[in-house]
Write a structure and sequence with these properties.
heterodimer, A: 1001 residues, alpha+beta, Ubiquitin-like (UB roll), FAD/NAD(P)-binding domain, 6 domains, 7-stranded mixed beta sheet, 50 strands, 23% helix, 28% strand, B: 99 residues, mainly beta, Folate-binding fold, 4-stranded antiparallel beta sheet, 1 helix, 6 strands
Chain lengths: 1001, 99
């Protein structure tokens, strides 16, 4: 707990509140306000991770969202484990437990590091070229069983937690007039201006503390005040405005059409610990009238051999650790740079007592205010520098470089700071589909023409320098406010002193690195991509930068190439002898930094994952121990096991009882649509294959609905209640689709018809009573109806009363037995069901579930849409073409019935299959073939669609679609299975009561 | 998520309330039996799928329930015109060109 590298300063820290934490089991100390990264650096921890592919030791490179190396897992109790977090963005709290990743057995001694020695063998695209065989046990066997699992074990990031996440995540929709992304100088100036207009302003910043570069701004003065003072005043002014919302710790990770932006707001661990009812994260879906992007810029690494050693760090990150967290990143530093900004870091570090051995500038000259100040401060500066070697494996020990004056030399140091210049963060602008343009003078891509109502300000717009950022932010805030319809305030001048402009920068790799096949000069730290990998990709024919990216995987890690993309692009451009704009940029995709699954899932998990639909009879079934199955969103009673009864035994008993006596079934989930109007019959006549004009009121018809392409899309009983009123039923899952299909034709094609459609699925509970004793079961409960067969035959409907409740009673059957469906208002569903149940019990009946229903309908050869059909099955295929209204001139799907493919002779037809061994139950989906051992890749004749053990028939039965099946009755076919072919005979799909005497009883 | 203007409700509502209904102005032949197999296949299956301005149908399924037509640029996702079912296509952007 020494914190040997802690020095004075540290604007973020609360020194009065020390905290303790562990990293890989070792306890350390820090302060509230630290990040995990700053606290590790304060404790002298340099080695924080192992690289993805080569397992090279890695340290902290940056101080922000761009961090490629310092990925850690953070735990706070069971289920509260998050892998792959950037240590630079993890706020320190007391009791934090963090661990390094991708190492075994330990971070310091990692067996996987042998990959580093094998590096010549595993360069770009190595997995495309190697690991191709042998195929001893089937095609790609070696890849699937040996290589891929081994590679996955060796290469990787953190492990996913195994326990469910106990935290809560919430989701909001919101609107604002001006959305400002980034609370650095440009964003804050924009917020002050837009806020003064009265517009509703939201300002987001990904960091715990707003301020951006101002947080480390020690020397500059704004409007005559220290920058920190100005920042505090600006934040205080914004916080007092009721129309401005400041959202720290909030990442804008996506920018979508019509100014729709996605925000993920984190709640800090201390807040969560203090109030466990708080959500861990909030996902905001924000619609903004106007957007100001003030997302800043990211410092680029330089590309040189072994630039990934722990202790090599971005120069400005070192400065931020010093000023924001009171941490010096080393005792003896060498600075290598192509940008003036690194001089500033060197000067600040020297002031804090760090020995700055040398500033090695890659440029030919080092002139201007910053090099001048550095020289005046007594720091040695050399130019025309070339980096040759970085020594030290687990931390930097020395660098070897050539520079003028002095030539080649070796310098001992424990920190190597680098700066290749600054890359504007154009991620969100690019996501908004704005066009990027290349600025030749600055050598950066920056925002060009906007595609949406947004504007960029400050460093993300390649406007570098504090004074210019403040002025551009102010202008952007005013422009956004007036574009949103508010009166913008006058321009506000910001006089800035003590912040000289810093210029410079380079892209790509210096010449002596290019073409060097031995140098491990990293372009992409997180995915272990070196200069030579990019060159190899170009040499092997990759031309598009998108191909180079995918072949080398540069820019494809979780940091999405925030540090690497521009350097990789420049190296590819040199290798292709093209300019950078000619090579172009890869696509920026959301999210900007990774977002947790928890934030996206929000409350939609467990019972809230999907809406659950339950029938009024659900609780009755649950009380009797029914097993349920999911059918769409519905919970349906599957079977009703008695104590110690298996599913198979329960289903067999339910079938037996229903066929012998009577069964009770909850059919409430059937879709129902009321079709009403003077043209109701004409409409149904056009929508269904059947004829409806002559259907008498009080009668029902089995309706078959085709798609316009001629395929069966839904079925159901349709009852004519009155000349102008029909009660249409659909399949359980099909109601919304059928209603939408009907509305489509009614509104856009058959506009001449006067018809109204109403969904009534939820209005009715449907109690099916099926079996030879069905009539005597319901008779005692019914009033106002003659149930005699002649008065109320099969396929009839009547209004009546049951237990005093109005009912639409239908005589229909999906079991093949005498059957009724009692429709009662849903609220009366359970009492009526219970009344029927009491009558049924007296007659030895039982309740049955969907499984028994399926078995019994299959015994009768009744199809289920979606089981026997898959959207390519016609009525003729199913043997249902008898139902087509032959005299109808037109209906939806009719024209397609004469298309050549539909009338082809070799179509698959519905048949029954009986296995030779009656105890063998076929697998649904199994293929049906002519021979027992069909040749490889020979097409099957068809497949099994339904298969059950039939209690009624005392054997297994199956339905299948088989090519020219109806001409094959009596033929023996085969169902090849892993354990050997099963012989089956082809029969009629109707296995039971072929004449239908039972349902007409 | 897109905001879609419903011409019947007279306001923009979020995409969640709507269902896309595919390409607009594809009328069902008045007498399908008089249509050749080739033309019927064209009506059933062939769509223009333009890069640029597309006339397409939307239904405000969780609102007024009505079908209507829009002109949308499939590149920028911008809605260029909204009009009721049965009304002619507004003269914006030729088929297949980008507005």
């Amino acid at each position: 707990m020494t914190q040997a590298f802690r020095v004075a300063g540290g604007a973020m820290l609360d020194r009065a509140r020390p905290v303790s934490f562990t990293f890989d089991g070792v306890a350390y100390g820090g302060y509230e306000g630290d990040t995990l990264a700053s606290a590790l650096l304060a404790n002298g921890v340099r080695l924080v991770g192992r690289s993805y592919k080569y397992h090279r030791p890695r340290g902290i490179v940056s101080a922000g969202a761009e961090e490629p190396n310092a990925l850690v897992g953070v735990a706070r109790g069971p289920g509260r484990f998050t892998p792959n977090l950037r240590a630079t963005q993890v706020g320190l709290f007391d009791g934090l437990v963090a661990m390094s990743q991708n190492r075994w057995p330990s971070l310091a001694f990692d067996v996987g590091a042998v990959n580093d020695l094998a590096a010549p063998l595993i360069g770009a695209g190595f997995y495309y070229k190697t690991f191709m065989g042998p195929d001893w046990f089937g095609k790609n066997w070696a890849w699937r069983r040996v290589y891929e699992p081994a590679i996955r074990l060796a290469a990787g990031l953190g492990a996913a937690p195994s326990e469910p996440d106990p935290d809560r995540y919430v989701r909001y929709f919101d609107h604002c007039d001006v959305m400002i992304v980034g609370a650095g100088p440009a964003g804050l100036a924009a917020a002050l201006a837009a806020g003064a207009s009265g517009a509703r302003v939201v300002v987001c910043d990904e960091n715990p503390a707003p301020g951006g570069s101002l947080l480390a701004e020690t020397h500059a003065q704004i409007a005559g005040e220290r920058a920190w003072v100005w920042l505090a005043e600006a934040l205080a002014a914004l916080r007092t405005r009721p129309n401005v919302r400041l959202m720290p710790r909030t990442q804008v990770f996506g920018y979508y059409a019509q100014n729709f932006v996605a925000l993920c707001e984190g709640v800090s661990e201390p807040e969560l610990i203090a109030d466990p009812d708080l959500p861990r994260e909030r996902l905001w879906q924000m619609r903004a009238r106007e957007v100001v992007l003030a997302t800043g810029a990211i410092e680029r690494p330089l590309v040189f051999a072994d630039n990934d050693r722990p202790g090599v760090m971005l120069a400005d990150a070192a400065r931020r650790y010093l000023h924001q967290y009171g941490v010096k990143v080393g005792e003896r530093a060498v600075v290598v740079t192509a940008h003036d900004g690194a001089y500033r870091a060197a000067i600040d570090l020297k002031e804090a007592g760090v020995k700055v051995e040398l500033i090695a500038d890659l440029r030919d000259e080092a002139s201007g205010p910053w090099p001048g100040t550095a020289r005046a401060a007594g720091i040695r500066v050399a130019t025309k520098a070339a980096m040759h070697e970085v020594r030290g494996r687990r931390r930097v020990e020395a660098v070897r470089l050539a520079a003028h004056p002095g030539g080649m030399r070796t310098i001992s140091c424990d920190a190597l700071l680098m700066s290749g210049g600054w890359t504007p963060s154009v991620h969100l602008f690019s996501q908004s589909r704005g066009k990027l343009v290349f600025d030749e003078a600055l050598q950066v891509f920056k925002p060009g023409a906007s595609a949406q109502r947004e504007r960029s300000a400050g460093a993300c717009n390649a406007t570098f320098g504090l004074a210019k950022a403040l002025a551009e932010g102010d202008a952007a805030g005013r422009a956004a406010a007036s574009a949103a319809g508010f009166a913008a305030p006058d321009a506000r001048p910001y006089a800035v002193d003590g912040a000289p402009q810093a210029d410079g920068g380079m892209l790509g790799a210096p010449l002596h690195i290019l073409g060097d096949r031995h140098a491990k000069a990293f372009v992409d730290f997180q995915n272990d991509v070196c200069v030579k990998d990019v060159e190899l990709a170009v040499q092997e024919g990759m031309r598009s930068i998108e191909h180079v990216k995918r072949y080398t995987t540069t820019g494809m890690a979780t940091d999405q190439g925030k540090l690497s993309n521009m350097n990789a692009l420049a190296i590819a451009a040199v290798a292709q002898e093209k300019t950078i704009p000619e090579v172009g940029l890869t696509t920026f995709r959301p999210p900007y930094t990774p977002v947790t699954f928890g934030a996206f899932a929000g409350p939609a998990r467990g019972d809230l994952f999907d809406p659950i639909r339950r029938t009024p009879i659900h609780d009755w079934a649950a009380e009797r121990g029914a097993a349920f199955e999911d059918v769409g969103l519905w919970k349906r009673a599957w079977y009703f096991p008695k104590p110690a009864e298996s599913m198979h035994e329960a289903v067999a008993r339910e079938c037996r009882t229903t066929r012998a006596a009577v069964g009770l079934f909850d059919a409430t989930t059937l879709g129902k649509i009321e079709v009403v109007g003077p043209d109701a019959a004409a409409f149904l006549e056009r929508m269904y294959a059947n004829a409806f004009m002559k259907l008498e009121p009080g009668r029902c018809r089995y309706g078959l609905m085709l798609s316009e392409a001629g395929f069966l899309m839904d079925d159901g009983v349709i009852a004519r209640l009155a000349p102008d009123r029909f009660h249409v039923t659909t399949t359980t899952g099909g109601a919304p689709r059928v209603l939408a299909h009907m509305e489509d034709y009614l509104q856009t094609e058959f506009t001449d018809l006067k018809v109204w459609l109403t969904s009534t699925s939820e209005q009715w509970a449907v109690i099916a009573v099926q079996g030879p004793k069905a009539r005597e079961t319901i008779a005692p409960l019914m009033e106002g109806i003659d149930l005699a067969n002649a008065a109320f035959p099969h396929m009839s409907v009547r209004d009546a009363r049951v237990c005093g409740v109005p009912t639409r009673l239908m005589r229909v059957s999906f079991t093949g037995e005498l059957g009724y469906e009692i429709n009662v208002p849903a609220g009366f569903g359970r009492p009526v069901w219970e009344a029927v149940w009491r009558e049924l019990e007296k007659r030895g009946g039982c309740a049955y579930g969907t499984e028994a229903m399926h078995v019994m309908r299959a015994e009768k050869g009744y199809v289920i849409v979606g089981q026997e059909t898959d959207g390519t099955v016609t009525l003729a295929d199913l043997g249902l073409d008898w139902a087509i209204g032959k005299t109808k001139k037109d209906f939806v799907g009719k024209r397609s019935l004469s298309r050549p493919d539909i009338i082809a002779e070799n179509r698959k037809q519905l048949v029954g299959l009986l296995t030779e061994n009656p105890n063998v139950v076929l697998e649904e989906g199994a293929q049906v073939t002519e021979g027992a051992t069909p040749p490889l890749a020979a097409p099957a004749l068809g497949h099994v669609t339904s298969s059950y053990r039939s209690e009624t028939l005392g054997r297994s039965i199956a339905l299948a679609l088989v090519a020219t099946g109806r001409s094959r009755f009596g033929e023996m076919l085969h169902v090849p299975m892993p354990k050997g072919p099963i012989r089956v005979s082809v029969t009629s799909p109707i296995f039971y009561d072929k004449l239908g005497t039972r349902l007409n009883a | 998520m897109l905001l879609i203007p419903c011409p019947y409700c007279g306001m923009e509502r979020p995409e969640l309330e709507f269902r896309n209904g595919g390409e607009a102005h594809i009328s069902r032949p008045l007498d399908p039996s008089a249509v050749s197999d080739a033309d019927w296949a064209e009506y059933l299956y062939f769509r223009s799928n333009p890069k640029g301005v597309m006339a397409e149908r939307w239904r405000h399924v969780s609102g007024c329930g009505r079908f209507f037509n829009v002109l949308r640029d499939t590149v920028s996702d911008k809605f260029l015109a909204v009009y009721r079912a049965g009304e002619p296509r507004p003269p914006i952007g030729a088929e297949g060109s980008s507005a």
